[in-house]
Protein backbone atom coordinates (compact mmCIF):
# COMPACT_ATOMS: atom_id res chain seq x y z
CA UNK A 1 0.00 0.00 0.00
CA UNK A 2 1.42 3.39 -1.01
CA UNK A 3 1.95 5.97 1.66
CA UNK A 4 0.16 9.30 1.25
CA UNK A 5 2.56 12.19 0.59
CA UNK A 6 3.73 14.04 3.66
CA UNK A 7 2.42 17.52 4.31
CA UNK A 8 5.06 20.27 4.53
CA UNK A 9 4.78 20.37 8.32
CA UNK A 10 4.97 16.58 8.63
CA UNK A 11 7.97 16.53 6.29
CA UNK A 12 9.76 19.17 8.38
CA UNK A 13 9.04 17.12 11.51
CA UNK A 14 10.48 13.99 9.93
CA UNK A 15 13.61 15.87 8.83
CA UNK A 16 14.02 17.19 12.36
CA UNK A 17 13.79 13.64 13.71
CA UNK A 18 16.35 12.39 11.20
CA UNK A 19 18.89 15.14 11.64
CA UNK A 20 18.58 15.18 15.42
CA UNK A 21 20.78 12.07 15.24
CA UNK A 22 23.42 14.33 13.66
CA UNK A 23 22.70 17.02 16.22
CA UNK A 24 23.22 19.96 13.88
CA UNK A 25 20.56 22.50 12.87
CA UNK A 26 22.68 23.66 9.93
CA UNK A 27 22.68 20.15 8.48
CA UNK A 28 18.90 20.02 8.89
CA UNK A 29 18.58 23.27 6.92
CA UNK A 30 20.96 21.97 4.25
CA UNK A 31 18.92 18.79 3.85
CA UNK A 32 15.74 20.83 3.40
CA UNK A 33 17.56 22.99 0.85
CA UNK A 34 18.69 19.92 -1.13
CA UNK A 35 15.15 18.51 -0.99
CA UNK A 36 13.84 21.68 -2.64
CA UNK A 37 16.06 21.16 -5.72
CA UNK A 38 15.09 18.15 -7.83
CA UNK A 39 18.15 18.57 -10.05
CA UNK A 40 20.45 18.56 -7.03
CA UNK A 41 22.84 21.15 -5.60
CA UNK A 42 26.60 21.62 -5.49
CA UNK A 43 28.71 22.09 -2.39
CA UNK A 44 29.61 25.59 -3.58
CA UNK A 45 25.90 26.48 -3.84
CA UNK A 46 25.34 25.23 -0.30
CA UNK A 47 28.38 27.16 0.95
CA UNK A 48 27.06 30.38 -0.63
CA UNK A 49 23.48 29.84 0.55
CA UNK A 50 24.45 29.22 4.18
CA UNK A 51 27.58 31.40 4.32
CA UNK A 52 29.86 28.44 5.05
CA UNK A 53 33.42 27.59 4.13
CA UNK A 54 33.29 25.12 1.18
CA UNK A 55 35.03 22.47 3.33
CA UNK A 56 32.28 22.78 5.94
CA UNK A 57 29.53 22.60 3.30
CA UNK A 58 31.07 19.44 1.80
CA UNK A 59 31.38 17.93 5.25
CA UNK A 60 27.67 18.41 5.97
CA UNK A 61 26.70 17.01 2.58
CA UNK A 62 29.03 14.02 2.93
CA UNK A 63 27.52 13.24 6.34
CA UNK A 64 24.07 13.21 4.74
CA UNK A 65 25.44 10.92 2.02
CA UNK A 66 26.99 8.61 4.64
CA UNK A 67 23.63 8.43 6.43
CA UNK A 68 21.88 7.37 3.24
CA UNK A 69 19.73 10.52 3.01
CA UNK A 70 21.50 12.13 0.04
CA UNK A 71 23.17 10.69 -3.07
CA UNK A 72 26.03 12.29 -4.97
CA UNK A 73 26.94 12.02 -8.65
CA UNK A 74 29.16 13.89 -11.11
CA UNK A 75 27.32 16.03 -13.63
CA UNK A 76 28.40 18.66 -16.13
CA UNK A 77 26.82 22.10 -15.96
CA UNK A 78 23.70 22.42 -18.10
CA UNK A 79 24.39 23.79 -21.59
CA UNK A 80 28.06 22.70 -21.65
CA UNK A 81 29.39 20.82 -24.66
CA UNK A 82 30.33 17.20 -24.26
CA UNK A 83 33.84 16.95 -22.92
CA UNK A 84 33.97 20.65 -22.01
CA UNK A 85 34.34 21.80 -18.44
CA UNK A 86 35.02 19.88 -15.30
CA UNK A 87 32.10 17.80 -13.95
CA UNK A 88 30.79 19.01 -10.61
CA UNK A 89 29.40 16.87 -7.83
CA UNK A 90 25.67 17.31 -7.39
CA UNK A 91 23.85 16.19 -4.28
CA UNK A 92 20.25 14.97 -4.45
CA UNK A 93 17.90 13.50 -1.86
CA UNK A 94 17.66 9.73 -2.12
CA UNK A 95 13.84 9.76 -2.01
CA UNK A 96 11.28 12.51 -1.55
CA UNK A 97 9.42 10.39 1.01
CA UNK A 98 11.32 9.36 4.13
CA UNK A 99 10.79 6.34 6.33
CA UNK A 100 10.37 7.06 10.01
CA UNK A 101 12.06 3.92 11.38
CA UNK A 102 15.66 5.16 11.34
CA UNK A 103 18.42 3.76 13.56
CA UNK A 104 20.13 5.95 16.12
CA UNK A 105 23.79 6.65 15.30
CA UNK A 106 25.56 6.63 18.66
CA UNK A 107 28.83 8.11 17.39
CA UNK A 108 26.96 11.08 15.96
CA UNK A 109 25.10 11.58 19.23
CA UNK A 110 28.43 11.72 21.10
CA UNK A 111 29.78 14.13 18.49
CA UNK A 112 26.72 16.31 18.98
CA UNK A 113 27.18 16.24 22.75
CA UNK A 114 30.84 17.26 22.41
CA UNK A 115 29.98 20.11 20.04
CA UNK A 116 27.24 21.47 22.28
CA UNK A 117 29.42 21.21 25.39
CA UNK A 118 32.18 23.18 23.67
CA UNK A 119 29.68 25.78 22.47
CA UNK A 120 28.38 26.26 26.02
CA UNK A 121 31.90 27.04 27.26
CA UNK A 122 32.47 29.79 24.73
CA UNK A 123 35.35 29.97 22.22
CA UNK A 124 38.14 31.16 24.54
CA UNK A 125 37.46 28.75 27.40
CA UNK A 126 36.76 25.80 25.12
CA UNK A 127 40.01 26.34 23.19
CA UNK A 128 41.99 26.68 26.41
CA UNK A 129 40.42 23.50 27.78
CA UNK A 130 41.10 21.59 24.56
CA UNK A 131 44.76 22.65 24.63
CA UNK A 132 45.05 21.71 28.33
CA UNK A 133 43.70 18.23 27.56
CA UNK A 134 46.16 17.84 24.69
CA UNK A 135 49.03 19.17 26.80
CA UNK A 136 48.39 16.68 29.59
CA UNK A 137 48.03 13.81 27.15
CA UNK A 138 51.18 14.88 25.30
CA UNK A 139 53.21 15.03 28.52
CA UNK A 140 52.05 11.53 29.46
CA UNK A 141 53.01 10.27 25.99
CA UNK A 142 56.39 12.00 26.20
CA UNK A 143 57.11 10.51 29.63
CA UNK A 144 56.38 7.01 28.35
CA UNK A 145 58.74 7.61 25.41
CA UNK A 146 61.57 9.11 27.46
CA UNK A 147 63.25 7.15 30.24
CA UNK A 148 65.23 9.46 32.52
CA UNK A 149 68.57 8.89 30.84
CA UNK A 150 67.23 9.93 27.43
CA UNK A 151 65.54 13.14 28.52
CA UNK A 152 66.90 16.47 27.25
CA UNK A 153 67.71 14.91 23.90
CA UNK A 154 68.42 17.13 20.88
CA UNK A 155 65.50 19.15 19.55
CA UNK A 156 65.59 17.45 16.13
CA UNK A 157 65.55 14.00 17.73
CA UNK A 158 62.65 15.02 19.95
CA UNK A 159 60.79 16.51 16.99
CA UNK A 160 61.02 13.31 14.96
CA UNK A 161 60.00 11.25 18.01
CA UNK A 162 56.87 13.39 18.33
CA UNK A 163 56.06 12.93 14.64
CA UNK A 164 56.43 9.16 14.98
CA UNK A 165 54.19 9.10 18.07
CA UNK A 166 51.51 11.16 16.32
CA UNK A 167 51.68 8.89 13.30
CA UNK A 168 51.10 5.90 15.56
CA UNK A 169 47.94 7.68 16.77
CA UNK A 170 46.62 8.17 13.22
CA UNK A 171 47.92 11.65 12.35
CA UNK A 172 50.34 10.59 9.56
CA UNK A 173 52.76 13.24 10.83
CA UNK A 174 56.24 14.42 9.87
CA UNK A 175 58.56 17.29 10.74
CA UNK A 176 59.07 20.06 8.18
CA UNK A 177 60.58 23.55 7.89
CA UNK A 178 57.84 25.97 6.74
CA UNK A 179 58.37 29.72 6.38
CA UNK A 180 61.52 29.51 8.53
CA UNK A 181 59.56 27.81 11.32
CA UNK A 182 60.00 24.25 12.51
CA UNK A 183 56.63 22.54 12.22
CA UNK A 184 54.82 19.27 12.73
CA UNK A 185 52.67 18.50 9.69
CA UNK A 186 49.69 16.15 9.98
CA UNK A 187 48.47 14.70 6.69
CA UNK A 188 45.50 13.04 8.41
CA UNK A 189 43.14 14.05 11.21
CA UNK A 190 41.96 11.14 13.38
CA UNK A 191 39.23 13.36 14.86
CA UNK A 192 37.41 13.12 11.53
CA UNK A 193 34.57 15.43 10.61
CA UNK A 194 34.02 16.65 14.17
CA UNK A 195 36.97 19.03 13.82
CA UNK A 196 35.33 20.73 10.81
CA UNK A 197 32.26 21.56 12.87
CA UNK A 198 34.28 22.35 16.00
CA UNK A 199 37.64 23.89 14.98
CA UNK A 200 38.53 24.41 18.63
CA UNK A 201 39.50 20.71 18.74
CA UNK A 202 42.61 21.62 16.74
CA UNK A 203 43.91 22.94 20.07
CA UNK A 204 44.13 19.33 21.30
CA UNK A 205 46.67 18.58 18.57
CA UNK A 206 48.60 21.76 19.40
CA UNK A 207 48.70 20.81 23.09
CA UNK A 208 49.86 17.26 22.34
CA UNK A 209 52.78 18.52 20.27
CA UNK A 210 53.84 20.97 22.96
CA UNK A 211 53.43 18.45 25.80
CA UNK A 212 55.52 15.78 24.10
CA UNK A 213 58.22 18.17 22.92
CA UNK A 214 58.65 19.88 26.30
CA UNK A 215 58.87 16.50 28.04
CA UNK A 216 61.35 15.05 25.55
CA UNK A 217 63.40 18.21 24.97
CA UNK A 218 63.26 19.57 28.51
CA UNK A 219 62.51 23.22 27.65
CA UNK A 220 59.42 25.42 27.55
CA UNK A 221 58.12 25.87 24.02
CA UNK A 222 55.29 27.69 22.24
CA UNK A 223 53.12 25.97 19.65
CA UNK A 224 50.63 27.58 17.31
CA UNK A 225 48.19 26.23 14.71
CA UNK A 226 49.53 27.60 11.43
CA UNK A 227 47.13 25.70 9.14
CA UNK A 228 44.12 23.45 9.69
CA UNK A 229 41.33 21.67 7.85
CA UNK A 230 38.57 23.96 9.21
CA UNK A 231 40.35 27.01 7.75
CA UNK A 232 40.55 25.42 4.31
CA UNK A 233 43.92 23.70 4.54
CA UNK A 234 44.56 20.31 2.99
CA UNK A 235 46.60 19.33 6.05
CA UNK A 236 47.23 20.54 9.61
CA UNK A 237 50.43 22.38 10.57
CA UNK A 238 51.59 23.08 14.14
CA UNK A 239 54.49 25.57 14.24
CA UNK A 240 56.97 25.37 17.14
CA UNK A 241 58.75 28.38 18.65
CA UNK A 242 61.21 28.85 21.51
CA UNK A 243 63.78 26.35 20.30
Word description of this protein:
By secondary structure, the protein is an alpha+beta fold. It has two domains: 8-103, Arc Repressor Mutant, subunit A (Orthogonal Bundle), CATH 1.10.10.10; 107-241, Muramoyl-pentapeptide Carboxypeptidase, domain 2, CATH 3.30.1380. Helix content is 49%, strand content 15%. It contains nine helices and six strands; from the N terminus they run H-H-H-H-E-E-H-H-H-E-E-H-H-E-E. A four-stranded antiparallel sheet has the order 3-4-6-5, with helices on one face. Strands 1-2 form a two-stranded antiparallel sheet. The longest helix is centred in the middle third of the chain and has 23 residues, at 123-145. The protein is elongated.
Q: What is the makeup of the main sheet?
A: 4 strands, antiparallel
Distance between the termini: 72 Å
Oligomer: single chain
* Shape descriptor: elongated
What is the percent of helical residues? 40-55%
Please give the domain count. Answer: 2
Global mean pLDDT: 78
The CATH architecture of the largest domain comes to 2-Layer Sandwich
- The number of helical runs is 9
How many strands in all?
6
Low-confidence stretches are: 99-104
Rg, rounded, reads 22 Å
User: Which strand order spans the largest sheet, edge to edge or round the barrel?
Assistant: 3-4-6-5
* Element string (H = helix, E = strand): HHHHEEHHHEEHHEE
In CATH terms, what is the fold-level topology of the largest domain? Muramoyl-pentapeptide Carboxypeptidase, domain 2
CATH class label of the largest domain: Alpha Beta
> Structural class, please?
alpha+beta
Beta strand %: 5-15%
CATH superfamily of the largest domain: Trafficking protein particle complex subunit 3
Amino acid sequence: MDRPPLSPSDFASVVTAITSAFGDPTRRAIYLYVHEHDDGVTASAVAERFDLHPNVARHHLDKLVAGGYVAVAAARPSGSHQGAGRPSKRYRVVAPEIALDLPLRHDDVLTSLLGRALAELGPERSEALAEEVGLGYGRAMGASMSPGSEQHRSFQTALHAVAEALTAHGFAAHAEQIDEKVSIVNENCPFGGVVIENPVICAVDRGMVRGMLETLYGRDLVTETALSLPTGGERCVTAVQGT
